[in-house]
Specification:
The chain is mainly alpha-helical. The chain folds into 2 domains: about 200 residues, Growth Hormone, Chain: A; about 210 residues, Up-down Bundle (Growth Hormone, Chain: A), CATH 1.20.1250.20. Helices cover about 85% and strands about 0% of the residues. It starts with 8 loop residues before the first helix and ends with a helix. The C terminus is likely disordered.
């Protein structure tokens, strides 16, 4: 049963849940901009300081499903509070780190807390937000993730430039303490779910097409989303000849568009239904990915930005529809587990996209590589890579349509 809380308390609940997603996203992006400074501060190689990022991401990926399961077993509010506290303490330890090893260990602990912050807000929303507003809540959570990704480099850069790298982790400490107080005041106490304790890990859920299909689509879309973040800058810099500052400005359009489209996408999900929105989102994203392959060759940078303006709202529509459908259908005893599985499938998609699609782009360039390839060769490799990405997105759309056909035949 959905015990939705009423306004104005509902706004505090949503603020606490959105703040959790925002803080976990900041934990990724604010550290990325600190890596060059850390390399100088600790006289360390790029490979060594990369572990400041990798330790966090690996900890999140490895524990996001168990974190959701812990919420099912011991109460989602209690586990979320513990996760925020761990994140806050680990951020303080990172800010005080005397060496790179200490900092990396603190980042592992921070990632363990972030796994809770990423997995439990969706499951808490299922119990605390009215069903007819679930899409808007999921859209808000997606918006906070985009804002955290966009704010991290700019806020981190300003802090590190004026106060040093420790200030970035000090900010996370202060924000974590504030979020802990807000969550303590806003989230209603709830008992652990006795049914969850009686069911083992319910891995049989993964054989249910209503669960497996959204997870598969989430993984494929995550891989495609990462292509725009990883392959895009190489094409902008080498294929279109942009400077680092110009590349950053063009790339910033993506998170800004995501932040602006997340909440409207969620409201459309509530109004039009989850399946209609996720299919429309996949169709729009597929069109945008084809736009990446075709428009820059004709229009240059404006064509790239136009494609970005198509694909980003498409992703947001898909995420709002897919996440809402998954959480609405989730059994109360396993909503934390399924929320964690959504996070895991997204992260695995990110890692696959970051590994395989740049590899395809590089293979298409051949022995000449980035530095010696002509702009025409770079454009062709970029176009082919994004046509493959469009194919993955189209595969997700076919999975969504197949799922609809199966449900119709069973009705």
């Amino acid at each position: 049963m959905n015990n939705a809380v009423s306004l104005p308390h509902n706004r505090l609940v949503l603020a606490a849940l959105a703040g959790s997603i925002l803080l976990a996203s900041l934990g990724i992006s604010i550290a990325a901009v600190a890596l060059p400074t850390l390399s100088r501060a600790f006289a360390a190689s790029v490979e060594q300081v990369q572990w400041v990022m990798l330790a966090y991401l690996l900890a999140v990926t490895a524990t996001i499903v168990p974190a959701g399961r812990l919420g099912d077993l011991h109460g989602h509010r209690r586990v979320l509070m513990a996760g925020i506290a761990l994140f806050t303490l680990a951020s303080a330890a990172a800010a005080l780190a005397p060496g790179l090893g200490w900092l990396t260990a603190a980042r592992v602990a921070q990632g363990l807390g972030a796994a809770v912050l990423m997995s439990l807000p969706m499951s808490l929303a299922k119990g605390l937000v009215a069903q007819e507003r679930m899409g808007a809540a999921m859209g808000l959570l997606g918006t906070m993730s985009a804002i955290g990704t966009a704010l991290g480099p700019s806020v981190g850069g300003l802090l590190i430039g004026s106060c040093g790298w420790r200030a970035a982790f000090a900010l996370l400490t202060v924000l974590g303490a504030g979020l802990l107080a807000l969550a303590w005041a806003a989230l209603p106490a709830a008992r652990a779910n006795a049914a969850a304790a009686r069911a083992p890990l319910a891995l049989g859920l993964l054989r249910d097409r209503a669960v497996a299909t959204p997870l598969a689509m989430n993984l494929l879309v995550g891989a495609v989303m990462m292509a725009t973040l990883v392959v895009g800058p190489f094409f902008l810099a080498f294929g279109l000849g942009l400077t680092e500052a110009q590349t950053g400005l063009v790339m910033a359009a993506g998170p800004i568009a995501a932040a602006l489209s997340g909440v409207p996408a969620g409201r459309l999900t509530d109004r039009l239904g989850t399946q209609a929105c996720l299919r429309a989102g996949l169709a729009l994203a597929t069109a945008g990915l084809c736009g990446f392959a075709l428009l820059p060759a004709v229009m240059g940078v404006p064509g790239y930005v136009l494609a970005l303006m198509l694909v980003t709202p498409g992703f947001q529509l898909f995420l709002a529809g897919n996440n809402t459908a998954m959480m609405r259908a989730a059994p109360e005893a396993h909503k934390g587990l399924l929320s964690g599985l959504l996070g895991l499938s997204r992260n695995l998609g990110f890692m696959l996209g970051a590994a395989l699609l740049p590899l395809l782009f590089s293979a298409l360039l051949g022995a000449d590589g980035l530095a010696r390839s002509s702009r025409q060769a770079l454009g062709q490799a970029f176009a082919t890579t994004f046509l493959v990405a469009a194919g993955l997105c189209l595969l997700s759309l076919l999975l969504a349509l197949r799922g609809k056909a199966v449900h119709s035949s069973q009705a």
